[in-house]
Amino acid sequence: MWVPVTDMDRARAFYRDTLGLSEGKTTEDWSEFDANGLMIGLNARESAQPASGGAVITFQPDGDLDAEVAALQDKGVEFGGIADHPWGRLAPFRDSEGNDLQFYAPPS
After folding, report:
1. Which of 12, 22, 28, 54 counts the most CB atoms within 10 A of its CB?
2. What gap in Å lies between CA 102 and CA 82, rounded to an integer?
3. Where do transmembrane segments lie in this chain (predicted)?
4. 38-52 residue pLDDT tens
5. 85 to each of 28, 75, 106, 107, how far by Cα in Å?
6. Res. 53: pLDDT tops 60
7. 81 in helix, strand or coil?
C-alpha cells in the first residue's frame, strides 16, 4: 500500500518519529515503513492529494489500542474517536499529509 506525500521529510518524520514505525528503503521520492507487518510506501512522485472517501490504511498498533491512541494524542495526532464493533475496534486518524489511517484491534 502506498500513499501520496507532498513533503517527504515531514512524512518520514511522522511515520518514523510520531508513529514509531521502522523505516526501510528511502530515496528522495520513495520511503517504506513497516506497520506491524504491513508495508506502507510514501510516494512523492504522485501529485494527487488525498481526498475524503479514498483508501484507508488499516493496521494493528504494536501495543494496546487505547494506550497507543493516548500516546499519539500526546504527540498532537488527532483521532476521530474509537469505534467498538463486534469484529474489533477502530481508531481513525490522518497522517501529516492528510492520508486516512486507522488502528485496528481484534475483539478480545
Report:
1. 12
2. 10
3. none
4. 999 999 987 655 555
5. 40, 27, 9, 8
6. no
7. coil
Cα gap 3→56, rounded to integer Å: 10
Q: Are 61 and 54 in contact (CB under 8 A)?
A: no
- Decide: 23 and 35 in contact? Cβ < 8 Å: no
Mean pLDDT of 65-94: 95
Give the contacts of 50 (CB within 8 A, at least 6 positions apart): 3, 4, 97, 98, 99, 100
CA distance 42 to 12: 8
**Could you tell me if 71 and 61 are in contact, meaning their C-beta atoms sit under 8 angstroms apart?**
no
Q: pLDDT tens digits, residue range 67-80? A: 999 999 999 999 99
